[in-house]
Protein: LacI family DNA-binding transcriptional regulator
Organism: Micromonospora sicca
Amino acid sequence: MGNSRLTVREIARLAGVSVATVSRVSNGTGQVSEEMRRRVLEAIEKHGYRPDHLGRALAAGRHGALGLVFPGLSGPYFTELIQGFESEAVPSRASVHILCTHLRSDSDQQVLEMGRRVDGVAVIGGTISELALLRLAEMVPVVVVAGTGPGAVPSVRADNAGSMAMLTRHLLVEHELTDLVFVGNPEGSPDVSERWAAFLAAHRSVGVTPPAAPIAVSMQQADGVLAAEQLLRGDPRPAGVVCANDEIALGVLVGALGRGLRVPQDVVITGFDDAPVAALVNPALTTVRQPVRELAAEAARLILTAVSEPERASSGDVVLPTELVLRRSCGCPANLTAGGSGS
Amino acid sequence: MGNSRLTVREIARLAGVSVATVSRVSNGTGQVSEEMRRRVLEAIEKHGYRPDHLGRALAAGRHGALGLVFPGLSGPYFTELIQGFESEAVPSRASVHILCTHLRSDSDQQVLEMGRRVDGVAVIGGTISELALLRLAEMVPVVVVAGTGPGAVPSVRADNAGSMAMLTRHLLVEHELTDLVFVGNPEGSPDVSERWAAFLAAHRSVGVTPPAAPIAVSMQQADGVLAAEQLLRGDPRPAGVVCANDEIALGVLVGALGRGLRVPQDVVITGFDDAPVAALVNPALTTVRQPVRELAAEAARLILTAVSEPERASSGDVVLPTELVLRRSCGCPANLTAGGSGS
DNA sequence: TGGTCGCCTGAAACCGGTTTCCGTTAACCG
DNA sequence: CGGTTAACGGAAACCGGTTTCAGGCGACCA
């Protein structure tokens, strides 16, 4: 119960002042004499009054909330994303609404509904239809994370192509592996799509024929284990397995070690993301570091800016740099960090 | 912009009716003649009017939102939890607010602030102070997930003790391992605390001296790798490593295999949760299956009930059953499922 | 002492919906 | 044909805040 019945009018009555004065005191706006302020604060203190969020939001025409939309939660990537977003939103006194569209047929509708409850939304690339994205952008500021938006919708993403090209060329040239496979589903997300494209382009740039198609699995460790099962059983075993993220790579690694294969001697494995565990496994995983938390934090900042200062709402694309991390799983001798890349 | 300027009064003017009629039509409440309904629907359709959520919420005295509070996101456990919660909230047209308290000093304050923006909150056990929990429960219905609440705060948790006792006895008796260690921090969460207590109790029940203290690490795969480093290097190597969750266990497994140890011949490893990957690694992981998604879904249902029908708000504890899953990592020959327990 | 200015204050309008309450009208019945 | 009733629609109150606007009052100045 507590402060159920307490309204600004009730406090005004108790303090013997007008509601306007109570509002001024509780917000610190306008001029209020010391005597009035004391009386109001006393009444507020005594009865434990806290202004109702809905009333305040209605008057302000602002929800004080930000939305985050993602396809489904799997693995450290999304948890980092959420935490990065949240860490930026909370200090601005904005609460965070989440929406998992995964496996729901009416996600477009759900997202538009969310648009009516928040001041701005970050949408993970590839999550909803472009039409829904545009409609959403008509009602609130929107930022696409890890992908690019249609029209003038701004976006924040990592430089997938640069580092994936470097990684692929590293395997093809330095380690002279000409029989690589790619594990990950390019249809699944813009990120994977870019990585696959860069993987192909790097092959062409050094004159090696790439595989015709990727091993299209989703992004979890279990999928990596299954892919390993399929890949490493076959007789013409690939020399290197380039995975769309670290989770798949760890699954492949576990699968390979479980079959008695040596990494990197028998097969090379690489990941993407540089999750904390990548440096700790044996052999340590060669991968690409991308600033996932920072990606989401930047998205939150863009939205908060667009909300509070609509006149300078950006509509450009932010591309954060990534970094190739060479470790033992690709055949390199020890931990070393190759040059960064990207914007 | 779209429906920016559109209010119920504007639609009423355009349709030539009163605001009450517009409200009745758009909500399907009360009696409205066919002619009026047609005129109103036409105006709504033509201008794309959607009632404002804030105005509606203010009038209804209900936010249409549920809160979920957790310490920090790490691993599949929390992602399952979130998705379970969300899957139950969304069909009830409630949006989900999240709050990571991790590493923030003012979490109690943040949680109380959240309490003013939602209709009910689920709090993961051990996340905030009991005082804050009680104050929160004064303003909105609260359910503790994976833990027990103070006072009359209801809770939903899994039967940790039953299955952990079975697992420990299984290792001590069936496999005759008398030198077990426990990896996980009982201070970290009520779940781990219960599991550690059951681990100790099982030792006593069969007359074996348990280890004096757990290896207190947090719950991520990287922590397991580090724990393995510490445990398996020492000369009096433990015969079995009982981990507080699957992620730690996978880390220990990777660490052990990386050091050239054989599992289960050289060391036995067990987990908790039965994450998807547990069945796929080699050797497959002996663990305890707990219904994480269902845990969160049940919490969401309890809250939704308490919100819509306060008179029959529960204040009891729900304990969901868990199930011992014996696989190869404990030395058992093949996949087999031992009897369930709990509830 | 009269006028002006600036600081405080409160009444009322406003944000965008829902709901109560009452008057009108048509239908139905005796 | 008069009377009762049910169906319908609109004016206004309400949800709980913020903000505008006008007026009161004391201080300062001439």
Q: What stands out?
A: Residues 7-9, 19-20, 22-24, 27, 29-30, 51-60 of chain B lie near DNA strand C (CB under 10 Å from a C1'). Chain B touches chain A through 59 residues (CB under 8 Å). Chain B has a mean pLDDT of 92.
